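INFO batch 0412 | record 1 of 1 | parsing
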Amino acid sequence: MSEERSLNFIEEIIENDLNGGKYETLVTRFPPEPNGYLHIGHAKAICLNFGLTKKYGGYTNLRFDDTNPVTEKTEYVDSQQEDIRWLGFEWKNELYTSDYFDTLYDFAVKLIEKGLAYVDNGTADEIAALKGTPTEPGTDSPYRNRSTAENLDLFSRMKAGEFEDGTCILRAKIDMASPNMLMRDPIIYRIKHAEHHRTGNKWCIYPMYDFAHGQSDSIEEITHSICTLEYVSHRELYDWFIAELGIFPSRQYEFARLNLTYTVMSKRKLLQLVNEGLVDGWNDPRMPTISGLRRRGYTPESIREFCERIGIAKRENLIELSLLEFCVREHLNKTANRVMAVLDPIKLVITNYPEGKTETLIGENNPEAEDKGGTREIPFSNELWIEREDFMEEPAKKWFRLAPGAMVRLKNAYIVKCEDFIKDAEGNVTEIRCTYIPESKSGEDTSEIHVKGTIHWVSTAHAKTAEIRVYDRLFSVESPDSEEGDFKDYLNPESMKVIKEAYIEPYLADADLDSRYQFIRKGYYCLDKDSTADHLVFNQTVGLKDAWAKVKK
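INFO prediction complete | emitting tokens
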């Protein structure tokens, strides 16, 4: 697919720059803040930055933008690295904005010396009041015309820890009347007496993201600094810093971030869901985090394919979650072994099959796989579990499954005919009694009986039990961010259903965390990390068909 598509606008720019000799080598970076887990939106940026250097040569740096010690943790650094590697990418250099704290401090001193930065003692409210509005210019701070000597003295005392948090800041001196609000003397340093996850207590002043980001790109000589559309207005400021400091002119390009239906992408909102216990941590299978998708059974191939399909655009749009599900369904169809699991069991007894006898049948693992995935042994006996929904006491029209007098094929086994059924005192069917056709064995059928329906089953004597977790959309509305009120009001109460005791074929007792399975006629599943040898837990990745297409109609 990637061979056929036309170049996106960033690829066109890169080809022109490389062919025209502007740069010899392409250098990109992926710059996450280590203040949360990466999500599917980051996957798009990862695939873009790493994918470009895979295509055009050069290299990609992984740089953690760790300028806020209050929100950052080593746990987040580790999880983000794991996610990038899992997606199939490797960075050249592992870097941190904190590596450049000394250089950034020197940059700030240089701006003060040029008369382009000053220490402001105003409160946050006072500074905000002087900022103006998009249609009205701002007003100069009373501290704007301090002397260079006074500013250098105050800034060095800020660094030495003489002042408390919030008592003063360093601002760039640009233009309080600029139509771009970000150019109205933006804050470039603030005091935070907080321990940093890498530099400890060496620093009590930290650069603002807008001051650190562009300069870090410049220090690393990033040729194409790719970020999302909300940073369009920041580009003028980044360019101003680079020009005034006379450093490598890294150039920023913006693309539309990924917005997905039935999902929120704000790290702040995802953190709220985690902290308030509304989900089972960052890697809850309902979360749009990469670790959540991995736990749910998504594959790196399916996520890369999804990012390729949605492409790179300059305009914001809302992508259907069903496209992501389509991509994983397509990949798992070719790679997941077919197995049998009964989620809502009812007993089926074959009255003319010898009691106590066990027969070993052969099942094909994956007819869609290039190598067919091999085969496995499946035990068969006279008592089986089947799905309750596969029997109907009074069959509907065009019903091809079990009903009184009806015949059906048991997958990989025999044709059976329903002779009778048993009900309990409440009128619920508890057992179905059938006879089997000995000559109808799958692969050796000489019965010449043709049936239209095939159902799955598990031998009761050999079945293993498992807990099955079936997931749905985390939110009940397409765009929770666009709705009135608190986004948490729109959480889907049906987003997770737990089947405490399902029956699975014994083959699944040896399931591992890296494998994916198609439960025949049910969907795609994977083993969950909560599993133990005595208590297997499987997560539904996605159903066999797009159930939501029907719901929306």
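INFO post-check: The domain at 9-13+23-255 is CATH 3.40.50.620 (Rossmann fold).
INFO record closed
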